[in-house]
Design a protein that fits this description.
This protein is an all-alpha fold. It is built from 21 helices and six strands. It folds into two domains: about 140 residues, no CATH class; about 375 residues, no CATH class. α4 packs across α9, α14 runs antiparallel to α15 and α15 packs antiparallel against α16. About 25% of the residues are buried. Pfam families: Mak10, TPR_NAA35.
Length: about 675
């Protein structure tokens, strides 16, 4: 195109007036003859399709969807965004300007400053990533400069002639910023975080913040959503969530408590808190798990795994003897043992860390992550079996015979047993989290509690095998006079761990089997009925629930037909099911009571004993409620044999309404009293 042509086009555009020769839109469906389009191009024949288009549109019903396979979903969403206030961040109302009218240079009253600071606390946190939004944010500002500026501001406020109430309100808010910045800065190092008390100091400031909030005045014009239209983001802007100031401070107080407890509380119990810790605290926990090339900033990954092995399967064992690392002769059996153990540690470290990191997510993601980690642990178990076989020839260990465990001789497979133990633990957690997250329908509770009982039984059998080898090793060392104070301590810890695990497993197995029998009886009595499922059946639901476990080699998957028989127990009557449920729940109650009597050292919950005991007591309450439910149903069933009518109504509570999120106990309401 020539420069003269460009100048001519530019001249016409400059003199163009949108109001010039404006005509109203043609009436819809008019029959006037339209002028033939006069487009000329080599090889192109222009055709006016207006009449054809109008005729086609008139044949459509109102609201009829016109679908074109060439018009993609991405393009359709793009079309919806334009001129829609909810989707189009650049949309302006009539008379609205793209810039705000707020004057940032005007002087603010003290109460307005207090109001703005308090309003900032009410806005939800945004995961602001600078490079994805093409915007910089305090890149060259050091935290020390910010702290100095805040200290200087406090000095200026103190020397001002403001009202004393306003002064105190401003100073406490500035102090809060200083303390919060220092807490976040020190949070990167677990050693400094353990020594500092910033989170507790922050919590102590909150009551004064609540009291002084009355001195503030809200300034709505100081906040605007128009900033979002300047961000290079493909996500539509979210509406601003209005949070009450008191609710925001309560949330901040909970964050301070969680952040203070994050390094002192066992991960699983910490993550089970309700409401769940905030994203920042969960990220902090994940950062602390393995930081500065050590676990929790204290011990190396090797020490951590070896201590865990010693406490579970290998107390005072040759495989964990550190002197093996000093042998440099390749033909020496100790050199080969050290090489095999290093191979196992390097393989197990990633799996163990992934399992712990999974618990730093929210509850939904924990369950989803565990469904993946059990496959990795299944492979780890297979690798560990091969290493165990290699080590058997080096340690010259013989098989053990224990008729209480098995009629056959049992070979020691300590490393694969360790991997198998934690794999089953994760499988149990997946099932239990399914109840907490309302994954299962009430009609499926009986089958899932039975499967939980099945997993716990497999882990119990494994613990008996491990106990057999540890007791034999202890007696052998005692006979040979090799028991030292250190080895005695390791054997004691391992045997105590097995004892606690046995009690815990007995409680889980008994309560799970009791609830399964109870729910099966309720299903037979038609007190629990499923909603219509036109697009699924029991077999399809079984495949969905067991999908995470089908790829696992052990425990073996149960065929659907056998599973149905095991859960429904057709050979037992309703009376027998209820009697079995009563006995199982009573056994579970005894086991949970035994757990509550353990000291923090005996239960291996030092630092988290309070949370652990609270969790056990919730399970104990679930046992008591289950006993009452079984007794009520049993009495009503006996009476129904005379009156032929069971005047009961069963309700399945939500997890948040239950005593424990993992133990959903049905409640029974007599129909005659239900008014």
């Amino acid at each position: 195109m020539s420069s003269d042509t460009l100048d001519a086009v530019s001249y016409k555009l400059d003199r163009f007036d949108v109001n010039e020769s404006r005509q109203g839109p043609p009436s819809f469906g008019r029959t006037e003859t339209t002028q033939q389009a006069r487009l000329k191009s080599n090889g192109v024949l222009a055709t006016d399709i207006t009449d054809h288009f109008i005729t086609a549109v008139q044949q459509l019903d109102a609201g009829h969807i016109v679908r074109d396979h060439n018009f993609t979903l991405f393009e359709s969403i793009g079309a919806l965004e334009i001129m829609d206030r909810k989707m189009d961040s650049g949309y302006l109302e009539p008379g609205e300007t793209i810039q705000d009218d707020f004057d940032f240079l005007r002087d603010l009253l003290a109460e307005e400053v207090i109001g703005i600071i308090d309003q900032l606390q009410c806005h939800e946190d945004e995961d602001f990533v600078t490079h994805t939004h093409s915007i910089s944010l305090l890149e060259n500002v050091e935290i020390t400069s910010v702290l100095e500026f805040l200290e200087e501001t406090i000095y200026l406020v103190k020397s001002s002639n403001y009202d004393e109430n306003h002064k105190s309100a401003l100073i406490i808010r500035l102090r809060l910023r200083i303390e919060f910045l220092r807490a976040v800065e020190n949070a990167e190092s677990i050693k400094i975080a353990l020594e500092s008390k910033h989170w507790i100091n922050l919590k102590s400031m909150i009551p004064e913040l609540k009291i002084s909030a009355m001195y503030g005045t809200s300034v709505p014009s100081a906040f605007s959503e128009k900033l979002q239209r300047k961000l290079a983001s493909t996500v539509p802007p979210r509406p601003t969530v209005q949070v009450l100031h008191e609710d925001a401070l309560n949330h901040f107080e909970r964050l301070c408590l969680d952040a203070f407890a994050v390094v002192e509380t066992f991960i699983m119990l910490f993550q089970s808190r309700k409401p769940q810790p905030s994203v920042y605290v969960r990220t902090l926990l994940q950062h602390y798990i393995f930081t500065e090339n050590s676990f929790l900033g204290r011990i190396t990954m090797r020490q951590f795994i070896e201590e865990n092995l010693a406490k579970t399967v290998l107390p005072t064992h040759l495989l964990l003897d550190k002197s093996n690392d000093e042998i440099e002769v390749p033909s020496d059996y100790r050199y080969k043992i050290a090489a095999q153990m290093e191979n196992f540690r390097s393989r197990a470290a990633g799996s163990y860390l992934d399992m712990l990191r999974a618990f730093c997510q929210n509850r939904c993601r924990i369950r989803r992550a565990l469904c993946h980690t059990i496959l990795d642990w299944d492979n780890l178990q297979l690798d560990a079996e091969e290493i165990d076989r290699n080590l058997q020839s080096l340690t010259s260990e013989d098989p053990r015979t224990d008729t209480m465990v098995s009629a056959d001789s049992i070979w020691p497979y300590p490393l694969s047993s360790w991997a198998y133990y934690y794999k089953i633990c994760q499988m149990e957690w997946i099932v239990q989290l399914g109840f907490e997250l309302e994954t299962y329908q009430p009609i499926e509770f009986a089958s899932m509690y039975w499967y939980l009982h099945y997993l716990a039984s497999n882990r119990s059998h494994l613990i008996e095998q491990i106990n057999c080898f540890i007791v034999h090793s202890y007696h052998a060392a005692q006979k040979e006079g090799k028991i030292t104070p250190h080895s005695h301590h390791e054997f004691s810890d391992a045997l105590q761990f097995i004892n606690v695990t046995k009690i815990s497993l007995a409680a889980t197995r008994s309560l799970a089997s009791g609830l399964s029998s109870l729910l099966t009886a309720l299903k037979r009595l038609s007190l629990i009925q499923s909603a219509p499922q036109p697009y699924s059946n029991d077999g399809m639901r079984y495949e969905v629930r067991m999908k995470p476990f089908f790829s696992v080699n052990s425990p073996e998957s149960i065929p659907f037909d056998n599973f149905v028989q095991l859960v429904s127990q057709p050979e037992k009557s309703v009376d027998e099911l209820l009697n079995f449920a009563m006995k199982s729940i009573a056994d579970a109650k005894k086991s949970f009571e035994a757990l509550t009597k353990l000291t923090p050292k005996e239960s291996f919950c030092c630092g988290s004993n309070e949370s652990w005991i609270k969790d056990v007591k919730k399970s104990l309450k679930a046992c008591i409620l289950a006993s009452v439910t079984v007794f009520t149903i049993a009495e009503a069933f006996k009476a129904s044999k005379v009156s032929t009518q069971l005047n009961l109504k069963v309700e399945i509570p939500k997890p948040e309404s239950s005593y424990h999120y993992w133990w959903i106990v049905p409640t029974v309401i007599p129909i005659s009293l239900e008014k």
